[in-house]
Amino acid sequence: MAKSFKNFIAGEWVEPRNGAYFENRNPADESDLIGRFPDSGRADLEAAVRSARRGFELWRRTPAPARGDVLRRVGDLLVQQKEKLADAMTREMGKVLAETRGDVQEGIDTAFYAATEGRRLFGHVVPSELANKWAMTYRRPIGVTGLITPFNFPLAIPTWKMFPALLCGNSVVIKPSEDVPHTVHLLVEILLEAGLPPEVVQLVHGRGESVGSALVEHPDVPVISFTGSTATGAIIGETCGRMHKRLSLEMGGKNAMIVMDDADLDLALDGILWGAFGTTGQRCTATSRLIVHRKVHDRFVARVADAAAALRLGDGRQDKTDVGPLIHEEARRKVEHYIGVAEEQGAELVTGGKRPGGKRLGSGYFFQPTVYTGVKAGSRLEQEEIFGPVLSVVRVGSYEEAARVNNGVKYGLSSSIYTSNVNTAFRALQDLDNGITYVNAPTIGAEAHLPFGGVKATGNGHREGGWEVFEFYSETKVCYVDFSGALQRAQIDNYD
Ligand code: UN1
Questions:
Q1: Residues 225-238, mean pLDDT to the nearest whole number
Q2: What domains can be seen in the chain, in order of their start residue?
């Protein structure tokens, strides 16, 4: 009998009030049941928010350096438990161990970065226009934050949201993706072990339509951070707009790598394999378009196809595996839907395109790394996010055309250019309409201490990571202190 996990509400591990659970299975082997997790309802969420309000009252008064100390201990525990967490994560999410170790490392980096921010969290002291008067600002906590996280980075993305929210003095209600509930369960255990006061964090498992929407709609949750699809982000955005909530959205991508005729093709080959097929293409930052200069197109694409065909599919916990499964059957069917779209549009399949045969991979949601050439800019295959191991190659004749194709999608997360010409590289940094651009590296690989996010339909102007995220999770308080002993009127008395 598989273990039944609980929610963490009001300082205790508790069963869902409705008694309902969902199953969490290994996507590489559906007979491997990891556990049953609460399929919670509105009442659980209500209780969590009530408790988080109490947690906030306590935590907001804890000095920021002391809040940082808790996060430093969280970082230490993540270091100690890196291997255990990576293993649990691969088991429920599927990506290979090297990647889940990287996912934990991203959480460690985020913890240590946030910990030191506890001793900065700078405001400004600004000269006043009046004598004997001070003007200054400080960063003030906001309240209960509602965090909704996706499946593809089961630890890193929850930490990107939780750690800065906590450092700034807010309390947290988190609803992790129902595909990867175990990793956040382990993370909450670590937060408690590190000494976070229990009511400061609440974990409510369940579905987006029930728990997620109740969280977004709750009047006592003034801050929402969501990573997921652009369609869901639009719905959340409407609610938050109506309720005047602060909202950070990280959504879809259709990221491109440009390979110019002067590129180092060996380097570009390594980059495209990692960018397109790492995490089985299930990153917001995945390279799903390859824009290649016609002078090197045929040569380069032939090498990409051979190398993609040689990638070994399998259980991410086995050493020989390069590419794990998709997250679930529905994701695999979505990929297959786009295989149909590609055929209708006359794109040329150069490798992959099918579920792998054979018994070894029969009980997981595997799909062959797939490459299409002859993909037209503007076609559905080139425009829509697939979130799977499907790479679309577009042939171009110049840098200008490449930049136009890169920019011709509704998303704007990351982009990349391979070139040995420094002028082309810098032009790209200026021209490519994305939140992140890489030179001579693929579209993935963002570091925790830099801002992360995209333009256009990828985001709504906020950034995660780096220094900017601390502004999202805090309010600016402006303080004026007049110690002149007289009424001094700004804009008036000093301009008599
Ligand atoms: C995501 O795909 O949602 O840059 C996050 C990267 C990772 C983060 C990706 N560090 O690919």
A1: 97
A2: 7-251+459-478 (3.40.605.10), 255-439 (3.40.309.10)
